[in-house]
Structures are given as structure tokens and as C-alpha cells.
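User: Sorry, what's this?
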Amino acid sequence: MTDVLEKPRLRRKEASAYLLQRHGVTMATRTLAKLACIGGGPAFRRDGRIPVYDRTELDRWALARLGEPMSSTSEEVAHG
């Protein structure tokens, strides 16, 4: 498989691997598919009928999902 860190757009399986490699976020391909239907997942495009994810959108989504760094579990979690 071509290194997913080099491709500009990724299919779901590659997007799942990219999220794990780049951000340490475990996200199954089936979960990405479900989020594409119900919302809440990373933005994607279509190449014909094939969904593809821009790496920049995957990065944006992963960082928003991870939230801000905290130094204590007692810090208030901001919900936005």
C-alpha cells in the first residue's frame, strides 16, 4: 500500500490508517461510513461514487475530536 501520509486524498480504509498513524485516533472504516451517513465525521468528497477524504480535513477533524491539552482531569471540558 502506498504510504497514506503521502497521498492527498484517501479512501476510507486509508483514512482509518492515517488517523491512527498521524493522530493516534482509532476509527474503524465502518464507523467512518456510518458517520458519513449520520453526520459528525470528517468532511469528505466523492470521486464518482467513492468517498475520499482530504488529509487536511482528517487532521482538522481529529484535532477537534481530541480537544485541547489538559494538565488535570479536574479541568473543565469545553463543549462547543
Summary: The first strand starts at residue 9 and ends at 10. Residues 12-23 form the longest helix (12 residues). The chain has three helices and three strands.
